[in-house]
């Protein structure tokens, strides 16, 4: 029973994060850059975004990845470009794996952000 309650709290936190991300992106402009919050989903995955008006890059950051993870993800992206071709993959200075997708501010709504986050989590966790 407690697990279900924790899941509900996590869902609520994620929905609030998505709502705030969409609202902040709508305030973005050529002369008005915005910053975004971040949310931890699970032990190793952090979701955040960066403003590059007219697009927003939604990031999944996998902390302390297993050896060879970036290469594995690059192979997946190459082998199935219709499914994974929209993702950009790299490492940061701390060797965390970064996977991000570019989303147009004009086309951004809560459902599209939810879907992007779900797909990024699925891709990075495979």
Report on the architecture of this protein:
- The chain has one domain (3-125): Yope Regulator, Chain: A (2-Layer Sandwich).
- The chain is globular, with a radius of gyration of 15 Å.
- It has helices spanning 2-26, 69-79, 81-84, 110-125, and strands spanning 39-41, 45-52, 55-62, 87-91, 97-104.
- It has a 5-stranded antiparallel β-sheet with strand order 1-2-3-5-4.
- It contains 4 helices and 5 strands; from the N terminus they run H-E-E-E-H-H-E-E-H.
- The chain is an alpha+beta fold.
Number of helices: 4
Rg, alpha carbons:
15 Å
The CATH architecture would be 2-Layer Sandwich
Number of domains: 1
Average the pLDDT over all residues and give the rounded result: 86
Helix amount: 40-55%
Q: What ranges have pLDDT less than 50 throughout 5 or more consecutive residues?
A: none
- What overall geometry do the principal axes of the alpha carbons give? globular
Element-by-element helix/strand order: HEEEHHEEH
Number of separate strands: 5
How is this fold's topology laid out?
Layout: H1 2-26, E1 39-41, E2 45-52, E3 55-62, H2 69-79, H3 81-84, E4 87-91, E5 97-104, H4 110-125
Name a few traits of the molecule.
4 helices; alpha+beta; Yope Regulator, Chain: A
Summarize the structure.
The protein has 126 residues and is an alpha+beta fold.
């Amino acid at each position: 029973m407690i697990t279900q309650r924790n899941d509900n709290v996590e869902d609520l936190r994620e929905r609030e994060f998505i709502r705030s991300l969409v609202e902040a992106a709508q305030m973005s402009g050529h002369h008005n850059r915005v910053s975004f919050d971040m949310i931890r989903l699970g032990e190793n995955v952090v979701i955040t975004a960066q403003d590059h008006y007219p697009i927003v890059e939604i990031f999944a950051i996998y902390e302390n990845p297993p050896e060879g993870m970036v290469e594995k993800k690059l192979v997946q992206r190459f082998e199935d470009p219709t499914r994974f071709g929209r993702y950009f993959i790299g490492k940061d200075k701390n060797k965390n794996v970064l996977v991000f997708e570019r989303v147009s501010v004009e086309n951004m709504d809560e459902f599209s952000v939810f879907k992007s986050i779900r797909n990024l989590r699925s891709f990075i966790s495979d």
